[in-house]
Amino acid sequence: MKNKSSFWFHTFSIWLMYFLMTYICFQSIPETNHLGISDGLFLLVLGGIGMIIPAPGGIGSYHLIVMIGLVALQIPDGVLSVKPYDEYNPAMLFPFVVHTAQTFVAIIMGSAGLLMLFLNKKKIS
Q1: Closest Cα partner for 32 from 74, 79, 87, 80?
Q2: Number of structural domains the chain divides into
Q3: Would you write out the chain's pLDDT as a tens digit for each of its 125 residues?
Q4: How far is CA 14 from the centre of its chain?
Q5: CA distances, 112 to each of 12, 33, 37, 120, 125 (Å)
Q6: C-alpha to C-alpha distance for 62 and 55, rounded to whole angstroms
Q7: Pair 50, 64: CB distance under 8 Å
Q8: Could you give the CA distance from residue 58 to residue 49 in angstroms, rounded to a whole number?
Q9: What's this model's pTM, rounded to 2 decimal places?
């Protein structure tokens, strides 16, 4: 590897952005806006474990393990808890919000990078 410091900087930056996306998404649901930094780190680790389970794009496995983590943090879900179903289940909603946002960011940034690569290659030719 030619530039180790750049590699480590970008690796740390990617994980920091994943953490910030998880932490900032806490504010999107009233039941999760009281969760702190350690809770965000806890859910980031659980989400990472959910993503390595062999499922296409972590669909299902990520959602289930983050939902279980939120139930462990006392966020109601209506399925795993004994509380009755209200209008919606925040422990089920939160992983869908985060995963959808991360997927859209990956699609948009990947498309932008592919376009830049294509345009740059066209200039060289």
Answers
A1: 74
A2: 1
A3: 889 999 999 999 999 998 998 899 888 888 898 999 999 999 999 999 988 888 887 788 888 999 999 999 988 766 554 555 556 688 888 999 898 888 899 999 999 999 999 888 777 66
A4: 11
A5: 22, 32, 31, 12, 20
A6: 9
A7: yes
A8: 9
A9: 0.78
Using alpha carbons only, give the angle 42, 44, 45 rounded to the nearest 5 degrees.
Answer: 70
Q: Give the span between the Cα atoms of 26 and 69, in whole angstroms.
A: 14
- Token duo for residue 32: 């999760």
Q: Which two tokens stand for residue 97?
A: 């919000």
Query: Residue 46 sits in which domain range?
Result: 4-124
3-state secondary structure 24-72: HHHHHCHHHCCCCHHHHHHHHHHHHHHHHCCCHHHCCHHHHHHHHHHHH
**Phi, psi angle pair for 84, to nearest 5°:** -70, 160
Nearest C-alpha neighbor of 103 from the set 53, 56, 71: 56
